Amino acid sequence: MVRKKVDDRVRTLIENGVQSRHRSLLVLVGDHGKDQVVNLHYILSRTQVKARPSVLWCYKKELGFSTHRKKRMRQIKRNVQRGLHDPDKDDPFDLFISSTNIRWCYYKETHRILGQTFGMCVLQDFEALTPNLLARTVETVEGGGLVVLLLQSVTSLRQLYTMAMDVHARFRTEAHGDVLARFNERFILSLADCRTCLVLDDELNVLPISTKSRALVAGPGVDQGAIGAAEAALSDLKESVAEMQPLGALVSLARTVDQAKAVISFLEAVQDKALRTTVSLTASRGRGKSAAVGLCLAGAVAFGYSNIFVTAPSPENLETVFDFVKRGLVALKYQEHLDFEVVQAGHHRQGPQGGLDARATVRISVFRQHRQVIQYIAPHEHEKLSQAELVAVDEAAAIPLPLVKRLLGPYLVFLSSTVTGYEGTGRSLSLKLVAQLREQQGRAMAGMRKLKEVTLETPIRYAAGDPIERWLYAVLCLDAQISKHRIVSSLPPASACQLYQVDRDALFSYHKVSEAFLQRVMALYTAAHYKNQPNDLQLLSDAPAHRLFVLLGPPGSSSSPDALPDVLCVIQVALEGRISQASVQASLARGHRASGDLIPWTMSQQFQDADFAKLSGARVVRIATHPDAQRLGYGTRALTLLLEHYAGKMSPAPAVAVEVSDGAPREGSEGEDEAEEGEVKSKKSQLRDERLRPRQELPPLLVPLDKLKGRERLHWVGSSFGLTESLLNFWARAGMRLVYLRQTANDLTGEHTAIMLRALSTEGLEGEAVAGDWLAAFAEDTLRRLVSLLSFEFREQLGTALDLAILNNVREGLAPPGPPITAKQLGYLLIPRDLERLHLYARNLADYHLITDLLPTLARVYFLRMLPASVHLSRLMEAILVGLGLRHRTVDQLARELGIEGDQILALFNKIVRKIGASMKEIGGQQEVAGVSAVSGKGMTHGPSKAPKKDQASVESRKNKGAAELNGSHAEKKRKLLEEERGEPPALLSIDPAQERSRDKEKKKKKKDTTAVHAQTKSPSVEHDVISAVEFKKGTSPVVSPKKKDKKQKKHKKDSD
């Protein structure tokens, strides 16, 4: 084997990193890069004065070699027989695999390595790498370690600009299939600005892109005798608590002042033993959160806590926590096997080294004084916490927010979360859950949880000022904070602001101006409580269907003339639709949905409509307003201009000059010419001579909407979001109507996904004409579904006020109501006895529970607009009808939710029944009275008549004649009474004594008139129903006393004889 001297800059970089505890990044270009990993690991292990560094090796599917020892031995034997291997010499790569602690991990399983630390990280299969995976793996490397990125052989690094990444398959849609890999170009160009990064070929030759390596010199050695200010402060803190046990023993294990103060804060809460207390620990990656939690759990054991539970996304995430629990117990003079024992459990792990080797600590049992246990539970096993005294949630940012809320209870809770890492819910947890706890603490309400917040700033895994951390946070926009981009100038009026489209080629060109503008945009996303993750950055840069718009003030409104304009609002839009009918029908038949086009595919599946997918539309992915300019109309203004733009309305805007290109060529810009001359050079020489620089010829960064080439006219604009009342009201103000509400809640936020649409004017739009009001048809279907579904999945998740807001929003998008329900249709819903029960309740002559079964029908009839338009309820009455009739709440539950007394709810509900009942009476008319009489006649027979057959016909004719005359006069009286009742309904809660006396006199007079009428009709079956109908409308009781009833029956019998 030919030996070759390695470039001194490689060794110098590694040695400087070990001395300063900073990480280094090495990019190996070539197919034999894995063979150089052995040499780099050898240099690293010789430089570090400790055990051989552990290695994390991540890959997509195939490693390209076997990690199984027996398989490798069989392969070596075959190579020896073929003469391809010398048995007297050991293969360095085989020795590396057999003698090094290597964790082989699929990219899809990298979530299992949270909280773990490695000395070296190897990333292969560049096409499968995503920003999430990059941040997740790089942050596990300790200070002085190496991050090695393996790239395939290329003749030019520019080939990586257009490399097809695996994630690009999800970005393509049927209408937008051309993907531009802008993120790769920006990523490769950013490597030149990282001073601890070297780009090498597979022979460890430094490539010209590593411009920072020219100034790479050996750093001065670390003076072990000099103690910095931070170390001196830590020593003073440890000495101050050295006599306070167990606090002193645990603080002595802290590595930084921040971590020591965090341990003290945790142990103060443990010592107080106050229930319903939450201690929140937030920090960036590598600050020692898990170690601090582990030390505090050991302190809880010393304070006598018996039932301690720890949870995390996976048991492997708690490796650091349980490790420091053991260290803390040892520092407190506990001995393993004598005072405590560690229990490990095996679990299935895929990969080359799965099976029995995959073991993780799940419990530590302490038995010095009494039984104490620190037990791991899965995040969804919150029902096991009934006897808990302390619950610690590590990596809470990676656990869905609804599960974290369920873990809170009447015990002490430790929350440890990352807020500036790759996690999508990290910011959501800190801004939503902690904000709620902070608000409850501010109100100082009885029974509310107490909150204590702790933050760690100083890194522990690596030294402060790590260049790799700075580079990673910059390239992935992980630390984009709105505090760095405050608006210092006066805010312009919203009407004077204009909307501009951002050219993504210029935005991701890696120029200094475009990078500053990109950080401002991502800072707005972070401040808007969005669930941000690094993958969103690649989606914005590479997805062909996405567009970016910003709302800016008029020219000259910025804080300084030369500064970038202040971004007041940013909107990210995804163009969707234009799917062929054949594709929709084929997908619906298979039950499969293609990637992208969220709204068209969802609507097609839910409504089984293949025509909607043919329409073109835009989905608002994100809209964020600057915190200094919120609630001033800027978001509404930006959305209005966007709707006008896609509707074809021209709105001229002044041009904003933002120069991205430098104009003058930089040093080494002749790389373009060299790339062309490289055709006659060898691949190695071209790669070693290539110099990469950002492009010089770029389009303007900000383009006014009226200057866009090929303006896009659309049929609709919509939005898909987690449903909250504030967001529903915002989109409703923009004229959007809800057409879909997902029945299952989102796993991360616990919110139900809603889709709202607004149809745009299609006048002059090219393409097929849109038939009819399609949005009203969808809204009608949605309304019928929601009225039935509010009592199912949405019953616990949504509130009554939000349910009412949803129904009102959907009803506003409907066409004008048609004719009301007919008497025949009403008979399918309510039988005459149901109407009689409603009438009794309306007059306070029946209990509420007598009509409970009719509440869903009443609510359905009202909200589906089956009643005449004259029937109108107030918002509070509608809320009560929603709560009782659609959500099936009890009166007490609804009273607590609405904040009013139960008696007031019943009084208002009585008015609701009276209004709806009167309308139903009006719809039924004479058919209702005849139906009630017929039913009552069947139910109140007194046996066969004893009259002769020849007289029975005359009796029946007299009955029919009298009933007809009575019905005629009664219908006229009924009409007048209904008009009086609709004009001024009687009071329910207060009765005037004078009115009561006059009402009694009127009752007596009505009874005499009624008795005379029945003497003429001589019909006992008609008698009861006529009295009920007349007296109900006149305000008297329909109940007839038994004595009077007997007298009337005897008189009727005598007349018949």
TrEMBL record:
Keyword Nucleotide-binding tagged: yes
Subcellular location, principal: nucleus
Keywords: Acyltransferase, ATP-binding, Nucleotide-binding, Nucleus, rRNA processing, Transferase, tRNA processing
Localization per record: Nucleus, Nucleolus
Domain named N-acetyltransferase: residues: 520-760
Record's compositionally biased regions (Basic residues): 1042-1057
Domain spans labelled TmcA/NAT10 N-terminal: 6-201
Protein name, per record: RNA cytidine acetyltransferase
